[in-house]
Known about the structure:
mainly alpha, 7 helices, 73% helix, 0% strand, transmembrane helix
Amino acid sequence: MESGASLVSTPGTLPCYVAFSQLLGLTVVTMTGAWLGLYRGGIAWEGALQFNVHPLCMVIGLIFLQGDALLVYRVFRNEAKRTTKVLHGLLHVFAFVIALVGLVAVFDYHKKEGYADLYSLHSWFGILVFVLYFVQWLVGFSFFLFPGASFSLRSRYRPQHIFFGATIFLLSVVTALLGLKEALLFELGAKYSKFVPEGVLANLLGLLLACFGATVLYILTRADWKRPAQAEEQALSMDFKTLTEGDSPSSQ
């Protein structure tokens, strides 16, 4: 067990930003459910309501859970690196599975209704994000969780992993905004310009989506909020340096 002296202090304002991000994220999920319930009839796997499974699952998976997975290394600063990695990976798994359900729902709905697939900008972004997300998780698992990857290989890939993680999250938010606008135009048409209640609620939802994405990315880009290397990791790095050519597992 780590002694109190070895614990890393948390930057004063970091908990406030993390709490704010969670408030935004939960509000986004709640407002998505409210929008679908109040104006789109709710959700179900059969019939016309099957389509509504898609936006709800994508917001929960590729927005909220993906954002939380990215924040793991900022929130858990004193836990063992292996534990933090596992939690980071599991949150991404849950996000991927929920997003997969949403993807299956929309393709199945389109097939039943005879609608065309993959013709809109939203759908192109969506497929790109989904494929990149899967590849990112697969490569990340191979490098950071699956035993066998060297410290040298991990250290060379880590900057790309961090960059693509943030980029995929940003693309996910953009895709959600495109889908929200597309859904409003299809359903409301000319009424959208009349400030009808559904349009106003959905616009507010879009603003909150953007705010959640911006807050998560701000937390990630603050260099002084990065998780510092623990004593165990530093010792392992020093031991490894004596056996290799100077590789070290720098913190994420």
